[in-house]
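Components:
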Amino acid sequence: MGEVLPRAERRRRTEGRILDAARSLFAEVGYERATIRAVAGAAGVDPALVMQYFGSKQKLFQQAVRVTPADGGEPGADEVVEHVLGTLGVKMGELPQSSLAMLRSMLTHPEAAASARRLLGEQIDRVAGSLSGDDARLRASLMTLVMLGVTVGHQLLELEELRGVPPEEVARLLRPGLRALAGPEAP
Amino acid sequence: MGEVLPRAERRRRTEGRILDAARSLFAEVGYERATIRAVAGAAGVDPALVMQYFGSKQKLFQQAVRVTPADGGEPGADEVVEHVLGTLGVKMGELPQSSLAMLRSMLTHPEAAASARRLLGEQIDRVAGSLSGDDARLRASLMTLVMLGVTVGHQLLELEELRGVPPEEVARLLRPGLRALAGPEAP
DNA sequence: TCGTTGAGTCAACGCCTGTTGAGCGAATGG
DNA sequence: CCATTCGCTCAACAGGCGTTGACTCAACGA
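Structure:
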C-alpha cells in the first residue's frame, strides 16, 4: 500500500504538507496562536523538522503567505468596479488560505501588517490607474477598503448576517456604491 | 509635593492607571503581545497587583474593552447614513482606545471576536431598524462593514493613503454609496 | 558493497508567560 | 495608641514557547 518514494519527492511532499498545515493554522488562529508544535502535529511531523526546513517561525510564515501576484489585467474605465468586486473576496468562498492567513494576522503581527499594506497598496494602485481626478487615489483606497470590510466580516468574523448569502447578491448591492466611488467618468 | 491621598482614592487612581495602560497596549499590539508585565510596567506597578485587582488577563481585557453602549438615538429614514458615518470611525481621530483595543484583537482573540460580533450586530440592528425591504438586514450589514473596512484601513493598518485626509472628505465620498445601500425609500 | 548523504526523530535548552502566596509598611478606625 | 486592614511588592512556580544538537536509519552514488 504505502508506496516507496524517492528522496527528493518525499522531501517535496513533506514540505508541502507542512506548508499546508501552516497556512490552515495561520488562517484559523493567527500568527501567535499557531504554534510550530501544532503545525508539525497537523502535518504529522516532528517540530524540529519544521525548523530544519524553514529556519524559523517567521520564515515559515513568510513562505505560507507568499502569494503569486497573479492578475495583471489592465481593466477599462469602469470594469474597475467588477475588478474590485472580483478581487478581494466577493467570489466569497474562494479566497486562498494564504490570503486568509495574512489577513487574519494583519492587525496583530507586524510582518503580516506590512504584507497587508503592500497587497492593499498594489490593489489601490491598480484601481487608481483606471480612475481619473486628483482624488483618484483616495477613492481607489476607499473602494479597496470597502471590499476589505466585507471580506473581514464574512470570512474572518463570519458574521451570521452574511452566512450563505450568494456572492452575486452582495456584488449587486455593492455595485452602485462602488460605481459612485469610481467616479463620474462613465456616462 | 506628592500629596498624600486617602486609601480609597489611591486605589481608584491606580486601578484607573492600570486600565488606561491596558487599553493603550491592547490597542497598539493586541491581546497576545500585550503582556501583563508590560501593562504593569506602563502603569508603574507590580504585575502581581494587576492580577490582584482584575483576577486574570482575560478579565482585565474584558474591563478594558467594556464600552458604554451610549447612543440609543432612533434615526429617521435616511439620517441612517449620517448615523453610520458618525458611529464607526469616520469622525476619524475619535475612536476611543477601548474600541481600538477590541478591534485590534478581533481577528485573533476569540473573546474579542465575540465582542466585535456583538457590537457590530447591535449596530446592524440599529441601522436595519431604519431600513425597509426584506434584505434590510443584509444591506445594514454591508453598510456597517463598509465603515469597518475604512476604520481598519485608517486606524489599525494606518494606510498612508488615508493619512491626514479630513474626515468630512471621506464622509462625502462614502455618502452616495451608503445612500444607495440604505435603499430607495428616501425621495 | 560500502561510505556518505539527508530525511526525520528525540530530548533538552533557555526564555517568557500568566499566575500565586508570603510578606512589608502605611493608612485606618476604635 | 494599638490592632487591623489593605495597597503594594518580591520571589517564585509551572507550563508553553521557539529553537538546537546529537542521533537513527533508509536511500543514494560510486
